[in-house]
Design goal:
Length: 320
């Protein structure tokens, strides 16, 4: 039976075995209620500030509602138009290994045309991570008490940890390692995106407080990392990014300049991602996070969903 993989994440309990501590999920729910109460939100699943990053929205009884937590769509885009095509290798009974080269080429072109963000489009894929892991809502932080960012978020260590899902080539038998070349690309693109979204967030700061201070500190930390990259290997786009940030005043009220700088950095990062494959960036291996620094351990084979079940599933997964 032809199938595609869908990962499910489970809540885990904190503390040592036998210790009666709240689970990670219950602690998160408690904190969410606290933040929501601070800014006057009555229902988290109906508040745009929460739904955008913490849920997947879809049609339920002809109304758009939060129907799932963080999932495939969070990174790869609204799935209604591409999900069925993505798992069709030439017919209901045709497995992936028997797909013809012609059909594969047509399928990949079709899913990209339908809006799926594939792994090869590294900038767009990774941008979805930073769009949420760096918060751009000042009230949510200063009044609500939400973190200004996932403080330890870094693209290599997070994407190669518990969320890694490379099962395709092994036919679901192994969650494969990510090649060094890809890791180098993740590292550089991740740092550049961190700076871009840090500047976008800082551009929205209107007052002194936790939001502005924490965001500025993060921006300065990322600049230090980019300077470290530049010292190890000359990358034209990184040099351009550093020149851009050198001329920017990181202060409240400098919205236009900060937003413009973020746009220039975005273009340079996209250019780097399109023009490189990581093979010439071996000098970065000494600073890229290692396995022991990954966030969690990669999971095992996830649930499998049959292709003939996809139409009904895709019918609910539509955020447009």
């Amino acid at each position: 039976m032809n199938a595609v993989n869908v990962t499910k994440r489970k809540c885990t309990s904190g503390g040592r075995p036998g210790t009666p501590k709240p689970s990670r999920c219950s602690r998160a729910k408690k904190k969410a209620k606290e933040i929501a109460g601070n800014i006057g939100i009555k229902r988290v699943k109906k508040a745009g500030a929460c739904v955008t990053c913490h849920f997947i929205s879809g049609y339920k009884k002809n109304k758009v509602k939060a129907i799932a937590g963080i999932s495939c769509e969070s990174c790869h885009g609204p799935a209604k138009d591409w999900l069925k095509v993505h798992g069709d290798y030439g017919g209901q009974k045709v497995p992936r290994e028997r797909e013809t080269p012609e059909h594969k080429a047509e399928r990949l072109a079709a899913i990209e045309e339908s809006g799926m963000i594939r792994p090869g489009d590294l900038y767009r894929l990774a941008a979805n991570c930073y769009r949420c892991h760096i918060v751009s809502d000042e009230k949510l932080v200063n009044v609500g008490g939400h973190r200004s960012a996932s403080h330890d978020f870094e693209l290599v260590s997070w994407s190669l940890g518990e969320i890694r899902h490379k099962f395709l080539r092994s036919e679901g038998k192994k969650n494969e390692d990510v090649p060094p070349e890809r890791q180098r690309m993740l590292y550089v693109v991740g740092q550049a995106l961190d700076l871009e979204y840090g500047l976008r967030a800082l551009a929205k700061a209107t007052e002194a407080g936790t939001y502005a201070t924490a965001t500025t500190t993060r921006v300065q930390r990322v600049v230090d990392t980019l300077q470290e990259i530049d010292a190890l290997i000359p990358i034209p786009e990184v040099k351009e990014i550093l020149e851009v940030i050198k001329g920017i005043d990181l202060k409240i009220g400098n919205e236009a300049a900060l937003a413009a700088a973020a746009g220039t950095i975005a273009a340079a990062t996209q250019q780097f991602a399109d023009a490189n494959d990581g093979s010439r960036l071996t000098a970065l291996d000494q600073i890229i996070p290692q396995v022991e620094q990954y966030k969690g351990k990669p999971g095992s084979l996830p649930e499998r969903v049959a292709v003939h079940d996809l139409p009904s599933l895709a019918g609910r997964l539509n955020r447009r």
